[in-house]
Amino acid sequence: MEIKKTKNNDPRKFKFFKKNAGFESVYLDKSYGGYRKGYKQAAEVLYKKIFSFQKKGIKEYQSMIFPFLFVYRHYFEITLKDLIRKCYFYNDIVMPERFPDHNLSDLWNKKLKHAIKRIEDSFEEHTETTEITEAFKSFDSIDKKAQEFRYPMNKLGKQSLMGLKSIDIKRFYKTASKVSSFLEILESEIHFYWHAVGETEKPDKKF
To answer: What sign for the dihedral angle of Cα 50, 157, 143, 138?
Structure first.
């Protein structure tokens, strides 16, 4: 295939990056919602494929576990950051330019829970919060910086996922689904309290 030379490094020269969507193109929803939905759907598809292969005794599924775990982990991370962003907005607080954290426990305990408490004092009464905290803590125990499922070795040449021999994918998926459902309910509650304060108290902004 001959690639025409261009004067700049415009990625559209390869023809698959386009400004306008065509019949065979996929529209890019570049909102937080679009990213969250995409990663969650990808995780769901991967799980069904892996579980199906596992039941049939097909060994190829084993390598798919890495993208599956990374995609689900990233879905959690971007969802936590989106909910924090909405809580900041609700309280009319200026958002930091970027989130430096990849640590799920820190995002959950130090940022999101604190941000929600500013909206709803009874937040800690949710019985599920302890379970969610433990789930994120468990995830961070093997992948604190969102690198372990992406690379076989870190920058220092140390083997990733040291000491981890296997993963109970059915149990993991059950827990991940529960966390996902809880975060979606939490998002609905954030919106509920947002709308409940009345139009006159809202800053003139949109999520």
So the answer is: positive
